[in-house]
Amino acid sequence: MAGDRGQLSNDVNACVDEVIRRVGKEITLGLPLGLGKPVRFVNALYQRAKDDPEISLHIVTALSLLAPKGGSSLEKRFMGPFVERLYGRIPELAYAKDVSANRLPENVQVSEFFFKAGSYLNNRSQQRHYVCTNYTHAVRDLMAVGVNVVAQMVSPGEAHGQPGQVSLSCNPDLTLDLIPLLREREAAGTPVALVAEMNQNLPWFGHHAAIEADRFDVLLDQPSGDYPLFSAPQMSVSPEDHLIGFYASTLLKDGGTLQVGIGSLGAALVHSAILRHSHNKAWRQVFDHLQVDQHFPVVREDGGTGPFEEGLYGCSEMMVDGFLYLMQEGILTREVYDHAGLQTLINRGDIPSEVSLATLDVLRREKLIDSPLRAKDVHWLVQHGIFKEAVEFKGGRLRIGDQSVEGDLDNPEARQAIQTLILGERLTGGIAMHGGFYVGPEQFYQYLREMTDEQRAKICMTSVNFINHLYDHRFGDQKLKAAQRVHGRFINSAMMYTLNGAGVSDGLEDGRVVSGVGGQYNFVAMAHELPGARSILSLRSTRSSQGKVLSNIVFNYGHCTIPRHLRDIVITEYGIADLRGQSDEQVFLRLIRIADSRFQQELLKKAQKAGKVDPAFKLPADWCNNTPQAIRRAVAAAGDASLFPPFPFGRDFTDEELTLGKALKGLKAATATRRGKLSTLLQALRARDDEGRYGSLLERMGLSNPSGLRDKLDQRLVIHGLQQLETPPDTGNSKT
After folding, report:
1. Which of 194, 227, 557, 642 lies 20 to 30 Å from 529 when distance is taken between CA atoms?
2. Which CATH number fits domain 7-225: 3.40.30.10, 3.40.1080.10, 3.30.360.10, 1.20.1740.10?
3. Is the pTM of this model over 0.85?
4. pLDDT tens per residue across span 633-643
């Protein structure tokens, strides 16, 4: 069936026809997680299934992205113009919209293995059909459910000098491993269909992500219908987030490896890493104020305080936009190579990036090349820039242009000729970032599109099973991965952490799924396998629920994502708990040490009652200052109020929207309880804007001239919320 692959079409319905012709009406459709979903094709196929009940469509995917809508009338007013500005030209995923509205037809089922956090918490259909799997097992599980169609958005190669190729770009993570397995299934007699939807707005990436277009059966190429990429707006970074990121930045080892996830905690880490590198004096003032090395000695052995002279290498299932900022700041500069022997020599300092005759001598000593040089040696040396690109091996000699050189490294004349004519200047082909998928703000996509070829060559988008596993993979074996990932720091977030050392990251104890395991377990396990690596789980020490402040460090919980035997490092805004290899008593105490002081005594009593902590133990005085006020003092320690901004990497909200957003957030917190709702409504009814101070803000909300009772009440609520920003109530526990 290979002969009819690579069929180009500019008609999406014709593509759907071809898929049905190939596989019939029993379709199990595998889609990439996040950004790479081919919206035009998926919507057309879904519509066909809605129109034809004989079609059975099972969509298996993860992270189906929809523009935010808002729940209350005020949230909808606020989000409307913002959503139109960011997403107005992007077609919605029709099946995801119907999933959210609980109106999928009976012949369609959607199963996801990772949700946008909290998006389907109360969606019973999605909770029932959720597939719990590690990211590295997703391909296996897709095959197990009988996937027979795979569809993906790709970047066309013509504009990048690669005619006949496409780039999997944002999602080679699963597709690179799925394609050969589906072809094996096809060869065994099961019909399959692979569909690519071209989109010129998708940034091009080469290396592993670039494949022949005819590896797909059908290619939808309709440039006039290309749409902008779905973006994830920049999230605000709170002072608490900044302190968590700061503590994490103290654990980064120069010359090491970094994995980090999406969200404000990841952004905070990147920001503090940049401060450490580019504004080290200010960074050190905060470090000294917090007495980090005295309170948390793990940073002395496993961390660092200076600029990143050797640089970091990124190896992360998700290439967040933060990696690009690290690259721009000269931090993400440690390059790795696809040969374990060469990488080991680089790690030991035996081979610098500058090429010399000594490079050849070391390689010969380590038996990576022979002397006299052979054809395979010359090819390998050219591949890594040790020899110039134009060098060839012909007739037993090295040739460049019309000159010929003997390949005997023991011959002084040959060595001189090699040095003069043959040697390159620096090692080439190094990779500073391996990523499995990406999604981020629009400015991130624009930067990726505008990168030079040289910059783009430093990034390799690849299989998630290469990144998340240490097992051998066709892109690299375990020995290579271990050589590349020195001083690994795998930094992820959790929702809660139990005193016995278990992490709660993906679900609730009643069984409902908040997000998914994703690759978190893989990275935690990898940190325990790699020499010198550490797993770091970060979380805010508290959360607010129904008007109450609750601790995220808990005595126990009826669900866990990371089991206690994989406990390692935990960070809150109050410090670092180094748990690896510690006794249970020390684990309990070190976690209490970084809990909010409002909950420390209660946690200690429970630990002592359970017999896990000495009954005579008393909380030291210097543990008991874990308060929001202490956070404010810490972020101000450098004397520069702008050092830890709420949006360190730009923002998608206007100034007016930021103000309104704060006001609405305050209203939401104030009305979290029945009593609070009644009190807020009574105060709002008395709120006035007689001086017209909030005119532009009310206009932005569409409330300049309210007509009905609901609109008038909304106007009063907004005015009240804005007034509270100027004179916030004194609750004793307020958080700004």
Report:
1. 557
2. 3.40.1080.10
3. yes
4. 999 998 888 89
